[in-house]
Automatic annotation (TrEMBL):
<keyword id="KW-0313">Glucose metabolism</keyword>
<dbReference type="InterPro" id="IPR036291">
    <property type="entry name" value="NAD(P)-bd_dom_sf"/>
</dbReference>
<dbReference type="GO" id="GO:0006006">
    <property type="term" value="P:glucose metabolic process"/>
</dbReference>
<feature type="binding site">
    <location>
        <position position="185"/>
    </location>
    <ligand>
        <name>substrate</name>
    </ligand>
</feature>
<dbReference type="Pfam" id="PF00479">
    <property type="entry name" value="G6PD_N"/>
</dbReference>
<dbReference type="InterPro" id="IPR022674">
    <property type="entry name" value="G6P_DH_NAD-bd"/>
</dbReference>
<feature type="binding site">
    <location>
        <position position="219"/>
    </location>
    <ligand>
        <name>substrate</name>
    </ligand>
</feature>
<dbReference type="InterPro" id="IPR019796">
    <property type="entry name" value="G6P_DH_AS"/>
</dbReference>
<feature type="binding site">
    <location>
        <position position="238"/>
    </location>
    <ligand>
        <name>substrate</name>
    </ligand>
</feature>
<comment type="pathway">
    <text>Carbohydrate degradation; pentose phosphate pathway; D-ribulose 5-phosphate from D-glucose 6-phosphate (oxidative stage): step 1/3.</text>
</comment>
<feature type="binding site">
    <location>
        <position position="346"/>
    </location>
    <ligand>
        <name>substrate</name>
    </ligand>
</feature>
<dbReference type="GO" id="GO:0004345">
    <property type="term" value="F:glucose-6-phosphate dehydrogenase activity"/>
</dbReference>
<dbReference type="InterPro" id="IPR022675">
    <property type="entry name" value="G6P_DH_C"/>
</dbReference>
<protein>
    <recommendedName>
        <fullName>Glucose-6-phosphate 1-dehydrogenase</fullName>
        <ecNumber>1.1.1.49</ecNumber>
    </recommendedName>
</protein>
<dbReference type="Pfam" id="PF02781">
    <property type="entry name" value="G6PD_C"/>
</dbReference>
<keyword id="KW-0521">NADP</keyword>
<comment type="similarity">
    <text>Belongs to the glucose-6-phosphate dehydrogenase family.</text>
</comment>
């Protein structure tokens, strides 16, 4: 999935343009795509927010954002000025009908009318319907206008349905782009290539050869500036319901008929509908939730979650789940999903553990082969294989690793996920975005877990900041004869 050529000229209207997401991710992503030659000079990026700023002041903020979040070697003065010439600003409260809509309408009408029009909602999701209604009422929603919705799409199935229905009143479903930045990560997309372009992997990609799958997204940081949002969300809603279930779908899906959007998304929905419900005793045996307490990370003492928050809370910062996909391909294969704040190391990875060879040829039984797909950082692959010990005259075996580091190998900068996704919305290419039935299927599977946790069915575990999580998560795998990857292979 390499980058396409330059996209059509566009007007990209960002609601929430003074927020952290816009400054930290969206503006740098547009800038990098300008450097790559994909953004035409006539394109316009129009920021809107309630702050009473003029264009020059907002351009100054955009420059500061690039200075902070773009690599120094890529901050090129001529290109920065070229980029800033594309940046506009309108002071506007998108949720209110009596706000400065004439300012936005006038700016859009001044530009070429053949531009692709995209609205990006980087606001609270409960405002999505109101903003959509106002855009429609002011005549700004053209037949081909697209809207990009940031997560979370609701806090449960009912609120997700409310948001989707509300936005769907004013935008066609095929023009609604529900963004999940994990799908924009190159190494996540690479799962498709690894599985279906390599006969060796394709042949063994099933429960006949695979013992277990681990999907981990670990962070060393705490909640920091997101405490207010995070404490109403938690790790299950923030990471599992969207990002990690999407990764699971790519690992577990059947070969799609093509790489067209609906073919891929049909295959993912089939996985979500095949997930065995976590209910009854499985809620206590196959789910773990936890909060970090004070500990040490990188030789620095850090406070616990409740200390950072400043009040009592029943919100989890750690989740570990054991999922099963009820299809012939994955019969009896556990999928372990894990995400957390304040773990020992920042890492996002997919670990495929194969069944060990059944042979009596060697003095000891061969260990299981393990394939690690490193999503971030250090994108690449690691194979753990059994080889003959060169210091032993008999056939003693030892563990060897084969490492591939994609960045140095391809001699490229690995792009941020938002770069691809922002322009895919312009292209009208939705394969890396979430369809409505995907959102609903994911919420249906997560719902019993949320309910059990809210009722206190599963106790809240604790883990020290800087550790790899609570002992209960280790015990969950041990009950099935499995071990977390770092306990064996990671130093």
């Amino acid at each position: 999935m390499t980058a396409d050529k330059q996209v059509k000229p566009f007007d990209y209207v960002v609601f929430g343009a003074t927020g952290d997401l816009t400054m930290r991710k969206l503006l740098p992503a547009f800038y990098y795509r300008l450097l790559s030659g994909e953004v035409p000079d006539s394109a316009r990026i129009i920021g809107t927010a309630r702050s009473p700023l003029d264009r020059a002041t907002y351009q100054g903020r955009a420059r500061d954002a690039l200075k902070r979040f773009v690599a120094p070697a890529d901050f090129k003065e001529a290109q920065v000025e070229r980029f800033l010439n594309m940046v506009y600003y309108v002071s506007l409260d998108g949720s209110k009908a009596d706000s400065n809509w004439e300012g936005l309408s006038g700016l859009l009408s001044e530009g070429p009318q053949d531009h692709v029009r995209v609205f990006y909602f980087a606001t609270a999701p409960n405002l999505y319907e109101a903003v959509s209604a106002n855009l429609h009422a002011k005549g700004l929603v053209t037949d081909d206008a697209r809207v990009v919705l940031e997560k979370p799409i609701g806090t449960d199935l009912a609120t997700a349905d409310e948001i989707n229905t509300g936005v769907g009143k004013f935008f066609k479903e095929n023009n609604i782009f529900r963004i999940d930045h994990y799908l924009g990560k190159e190494t996540v997309q690479d799962v498709i290539a690894l599985r279906f372009a390599n006969p060796l992997l394709s042949a063994v990609w099933s429960g006949d050869y695979i013992k277990s799958v681990q999907i981990t997204a670990a962070e060393t940081v705490g909640v920091e500036g997101r405490a207010a949002y995070y404490d109403t969300s938690g790790a299950l809603r923030d990471m599992v319901q969207n990002h990690l279930l999407q990764v699971l779908c790519l690992v577990a899906m059947e070969p799609p008929a093509s790489l067209e959007a609906d073919a891929v998304r049909d295959a993912k929905v089939a996985v979500l509908k095949s997930l065995r419900p976590l209910a009854g005793d499985r809620l206590t045996s196959d789910t773990v939730r936890g909060q970090y307490v004070a500990g040490e990370i990188n030789e620095e003492n850090v406070r616990g979650y409740l200390e950072e928050l400043g009040h009592a809370s029943n919100t989890e910062t750690y989740v570990a789940l054991r999922a099963e996909v009820d299809t012939p391909r994955w019969k009896n294969v556990p999928f372990y999903i894990r995400t957390a704040k304040r773990l020992h190391r920042k890492v996002s990875e997919i670990v495929i553990t194969f069944k060990p060879a059944e042979t009596n040829l060697f003095p000891q039984a061969p260990k299981a082969n393990v394939l690690v797909i490193r999503v971030q950082p250090d994108e690449g692959l690691t194979w753990h294989l059994s080889v003959k010990d060169p210091q032993d005259d008999s056939f003693e075996l030892r563990d060897a690793t084969m490492d591939t580091h994609f960045g140095p190998q391809f001699k490229v900068r690995y792009p941020d996920a938002y770069e691809r996704l922002l322009l895919d919305a312009v292209r009208g290419y939705p394969v890396l975005f979430i369809r409505r039935d995907e959102v609903e299927a994911a919420w249906r599977w997560v719902a019993p877990i949320m309910e059990a946790w809210a009722n206190g069915t599963v106790p809240m575990s604790q883990y020290a900041a800087g550790s790899w999580g609570p002992e209960e998560a280790t015990a969950m795998l041990a009950e099935h004869g499995d071990t977390w990857h770092e306990a064996i292979h990671r130093q």
